[in-house]
Amino acid sequence: MTDRTTTPPSIEATSRTTDSAIAIAAIAVLIASYAVNAMDRTLFPLMLTDVRREYGFSLPQGGLLSTIFTLGMTLAGIPTGYLMSRYQRKTVIQIGILIYSVATVITVIATGFADMLFYRAITGIGEAMQLTALLAVFSSYFARSRAAGVGLLNYAYAGGAAIGPWLGAKLLVDYGTWRAPMIIYGVIGLAMMVLIAAVVRPALSETKGEENASRVSGGAASLNNRNTIVLATLSVLFGLALYGYLGMYPTFLREQLHYAPADAGKVMSIYGLGVLVSLFTGWLGDRFSPRLVLGLSFLVASAIAALLFNGPADFATQATLSLVLGATFSGTIFVNLAACHVKAVAASLAGRVSGLFVTCVYGSATVAGYLIGWIAGLSGWTIAGNIQLVALCLVGAVIALLLRPQDMSRQIKQAG
């Protein structure tokens, strides 16, 4: 006679419920951590007018300071992909947060252009490490709906981009110095790093999506394939357009349209609200051709940008257009570019291709602020916006037609 030890159904059900609750809590904490990332990167552009006034920086110098963090993101993107093959993604996320939070605080003691430029670049290294690892976590954990998974993560950007400028402007007014918001945001980041250590388990952050491997087929065996090359090109164009807007649009509002800091902060916060469409647009990206989704999105972005820099200057119009641009840029193009990069290759390359995406977007973003500031200084803001946003998005819409959806990974319906 053989004795068998069985677990009562009630205990198994309780265990599954507990595990689900822990997973939901961990996902929520990771989303919140990326919201802090978004808050941090949207803060400095809002402070730029005050920084320029204090240090006497030129408009192109200010533009470079505003987007130089993307140089750090460029340098860290691909190496972070390799780093995740040796260390836990959770650890990489925490180190990233530590780096950009400390660098944000240190920025307030800068003595001039050179050291401030260095500190702002260092923040990008940390932000890239966190973002690359988070993209790998969410695209793997939600392997059956990668774009929707990235869309869920992008809700964090929506929250951070909405709260960051509003809170930053409030702290600027309350304390009367741009240094106070920088220090406070850095401390918030350090607190989030500790929370991740306490809540996020490796079982969630390190999942490779093996449970879904039998349902997914296709994808290139290396990064050297047509879809990845096309997507990398689109990512470069997107970085130039996106950070031409994010890096210098607040300066355009304050110095060209003469908005008060609080009003400029409100407009940028409204841009962040547009990102709330991410989950829906990710769902669209999982069900329709990327040529259609990305092509139309770039086309819409071009039209909105044209209105933004050539249309009425009143608050209601600028806020509405920023809302729609947020839904198009960060809510649709970012989500589907990130997901398509992962879909274009085999599952084992998810970390590396996520790093490539980050490098391409933020590599071009490195010069985006300087470029639009330089063009604006020569020819005015209207021409600068028409060149760097309107024209580049039109080019992106055409290039998206070169994608081959049939070569990307896809779901297989299993019998039975």
TrEMBL record:
Q: Pfam families from the entry? A: MFS_1
User: What is the name of this protein?
Assistant: Sugar phosphate permease
Q: Which organism is it from?
A: Bradyrhizobium erythrophlei
Please give the superkingdom of this protein's source.
Bacteria
How does this protein sit in the membrane?
Multi-pass membrane protein
Task: Say where the protein is mainly found.
Answer: membrane
- Domain Major facilitator superfamily (MFS) profile as annotated: residue spans: 21-408
Do you know which InterPro entries this protein is assigned to?
MFS, MFS_dom, MFS_Efflux_Transporters, MFS_trans_sf
Q: What keywords are annotated for this sequence in UniProt?
A: Cell membrane, Membrane, Transmembrane, Transmembrane helix
Q: Where in the cell is it found?
A: Cell membrane
Any signal peptide, and if so, which residues? none
- Upper classification of the organism: Bacteria, Pseudomonadati, Pseudomonadota, Alphaproteobacteria, Hyphomicrobiales
Cite a single GO MF annotation.
transmembrane transporter activity
Q: Could you tell me which Gene3D superfamilies the record lists for this protein?
A: MFS general substrate transporter like domains (1.20.1250.20)
Name any GO cellular component annotation: plasma membrane
**Bilayer-crossing regions:** 21-39, 59-84, 91-111, 117-138, 150-168, 180-200, 229-248, 268-285, 292-309, 321-342, 354-377, 383-403
Tell me yes or no: is Transmembrane helix among this UniProt entry's keywords: yes
